[in-house]
Specification:
Layout (H helix, E strand, L loop, with lengths): L1 E5 L2 E9 L4 E5 L2 E5 L4 E5 L9 E7 L4 E7 L4 H14 L19 E19 L6 E24 L2 E10 L7 E6 L20 E26 L2 E25 L2 E2 L2 E2 L5 E29 L4 E21 L4 E22 L4 E23 L5 E24 L1
Antiparallel strand pairs: 1-2, 2-3, 3-4, 4-5, 6-7, 8-9, 8-20, 9-10, 9-11, 10-12, 11-12, 12-13, 13-16, 14-15, 16-17, 17-18, 18-19, 19-20
């Protein structure tokens, strides 16, 4: 039986050894040691009413004690528990400082372009998350953005950075389809049934993206796992914005009267490209991201990344010019996912070309709508009556320089 001293306490441990590391299991926790570092996690008592989570972390150069108190939200607990598991990995400030596959950078600058394709949805429901009565599908098509990314070292393994992207075109070939469902036997709206083609009104339009940007600030913790890979953990905040112009083209409507539908898709015509709707979406996203970095050789480095948030806040504005109506929408407690793969090709000691492919998803958020009648000034609130979602594929290419 052996002991390891953690925070000046002798804890009895049982040890299983291998050639490269030691794994130590005891009644109060788990310890793991290598030639360069060691770490220890105290066992947690997880109950339905969690008051305290404690992580004890140590290595050859540092000891960190983290405590989180009064976590009554299960989701918040899960997030910080995952964060603690990431910090459980040894951040070894002395190992591999001169390892040739990874840059020893104090300041880096990347300039490049981002090519986006995707779709943004706006949906309307009867008040109180009732039946879906309308859906607007906005294309994000062939959008080109200029991208600046910079990182500054604040300690041997910690960086802070900013990532800024702004659209430099309006996209091309984008469409918007506006679909409504109206009941046949009453003046009430009806829901689309899965697998049944029941829509009653549909408008087909061209779309320009008047403005789009993405702004990110983050702090990164990076540490070698072994001689062949690094692990990087980011904590960041991201803001995403899209502003769409709708140029109405063809439509198929169903005639109606005060009692409901009097026909079914019996009216066809064209709006001749008149601007009918102005619409924007904004998302504010605090997030966590984990990246696994692997050098293939002295020239090529590959990374795989995953980001997540359950604290997305969103807002949107839908202005209907034909009806002089403005809809202001607010959402919260949404989710965000991002999956990415990146490749860096080193041209020289300080320069490289970086490419990345990202998929990001913000699933549907349902929230409140504040309606303003612009002709009369009347205002009213519709609770749980609208939603937003956003799905994007990105291809990025950068030229990177390390100072």
């Amino acid at each position: 039986m052996q002991t390891v001293e953690i925070a000046k306490k002798q804890i009895p441990l049982e040890k299983k050894a291998s050639e490269s590391y030691s794994f130590i299991l005891g009644e109060r926790g788990i310890a793991f040691t290598t030639k360069e570092s060691c770490w220890f996690v105290k066992f947690l008592r997880i109950t339905t009413n969690i008051k305290t989570i404690t992580l004890v972390f140590c290595n050859a150069n540092a000891k960190i004690f983290l405590k989180y108190y009064k976590f009554f939200s299960v989701k918040l607990f899960i997030l910080f528990f995952i964060l603690e598991l990431f910090l459980f990995i040894p951040f070894n400030f002395s190992a591999q400082e001169n390892y040739e596959h990874f840059e020893n950078k104090s300041f880096s600058l990347k300039i490049g372009t981002t090519f986006l394709n995707g779709v943004a949805f706006e949906r309307v429901y009867k008040v109180g998350r009732g039946r879906k009565i309308s859906e607007l599908e906005w294309d994000i098509s062939n959008l080109l953005m200029i991208n600046f990314l910079s990182e500054i070292k604040i300690s041997p393994n910690i960086y802070i950075g900013v990532d800024l992207s702004k659209a430099i075109n309006s996209g091309s070939g984008g469409k918007m389809v506006n679909t409504d469902w109206l009941g046949r036997d009453s003046s009430d709206w009806t829901d689309r049934r899965d697998g049944v083609n029941t829509w009653t009104h549909r408008t087909f339009s061209d779309v320009d993206i008047e403005e789009a940007y993405e702004r990110t600030i983050f702090i990164s913790f990076e540490s070698p796992l072994n001689n062949n890979s690094n692990l990087k953990f980011d904590i960041g905040f991201k803001e995403i914005f899209f502003f769409f112009f709708y140029f109405a083209k063809n439509y198929v409507y169903s005639s109606s009267n005060q009692y409901g539908l009097s026909g079914f898709r019996d009216c066809e015509g064209s709006f001749n490209g008149v601007t009918g709707i102005l619409y924007w979406q904004k998302f504010q996203i605090p997030y966590l991201e984990l990246s696994y970095i692997i050098p293939s050789n002295n020239k090529i480095i590959t990374d795989f990344s995953f980001a997540y948030s359950f604290m997305v806040k969103a807002s949107a504005q839908d202005r209907h010019l034909f009806r002089n109506l403005k809809f202001l929408e607010e959402y919260e407690k949404g989710q965000y996912y991002k999956f990415g793969i990146g490749i860096k090709y080193k041209l020289g000691l300080n320069t490289s070309i970086d490419g990345a492919l990202h998929y990001q998803l913000i699933p549907e958020l349902i929230g409140n709508t504040f309606v303003i009648e612009e002709n009369t000034g009347s205002r009213y609130l519709l609770v749980d009556s609208s939603s937003v979602s956003n799905e994007i594929f990105k291809f990025k290419i950068f030229v990177s320089y390390i100072f």
